[in-house]
Amino acid sequence: MTPQERESLRLDSVKGMASQNLVASETAKELAIGHLFERKSVARVLHAAGMLLRRGIGRVNVKEAREFVSHDQRLIPVNRTSDLVTTPKVMDEEKTMIQIATSGQDAHEALGRGEQWNIRDGRVRADKGQSDAVRHVLESKDMVTSIRGRQEVAKVR
């Protein structure tokens, strides 16, 4: 390092310098929304505010983050009593998926085509619940079929 580079790293020099390469508040909001809803449909209000603070570090303050989650048109509450938010785009996508699933009910040939299916590999043993799940999928005429996993019943002692 040169003496000038070393001098520029001293604490008092760093504190006195203007921040560089920080994103503007509006860009931070877009980045926060993109990150929050990249893989999920909903986010907690505090998580959304925190994500904005992370994305807008040095440019966004806590007051602005609170305003963002409570008044920004890009975020909408999931319902009146929840602390969850989503976006209008996500809501539209979910409505479309529901419409597709609803219109696809009893609209297709069953995957199993009415045939009997047996597990051939002797190493695989399915319990009744697993067999019922496979049968459900093979007999369904719906475009979308879901299976809920086993639900354990808690024993009261």
Architecture overview:
The chain has 157 residues and is mainly alpha-helical. Among the domains are: 17-87, Arc Repressor Mutant, subunit A; 104-139, no CATH class. The chain is built from 7 helices and 3 strands, in the order H-H-H-E-H-H-E-E-H-H. It has helices at 3-8, 11-16, 25-36, 45-55, 62-71, 88-103, 128-139; strands spanning 43-44, 76-77, 84-86. The protein has a 3-stranded antiparallel beta sheet with strand order 1-3-2. It is elongated and about 80 Å long. The model has no long low-confidence stretch (mean pLDDT 84).
CATH class of one domain: Mainly Alpha
Number of strands: 3
| Helix run count | 7
Give the overall silhouette. elongated
Distance between the termini: 69 Å
Largest sheet: 3 strands, antiparallel
| Helix fraction bin | 40-55%
Question: Which key phrases capture this entry?
Answer:
mainly alpha; about 45% helix; three-stranded antiparallel β-sheet; about 160 residues; 3 strands; 7 helices; Arc Repressor Mutant, subunit A
Question: Secondary-structure map with pairings?
Answer:
Layout (H helix, E strand, L loop, with lengths): L2 H6 L2 H6 L8 H12 L6 E2 H11 L6 H10 L4 E2 L6 E3 L1 H16 L24 H12 L18
Antiparallel strand pairs: 1-3, 2-3
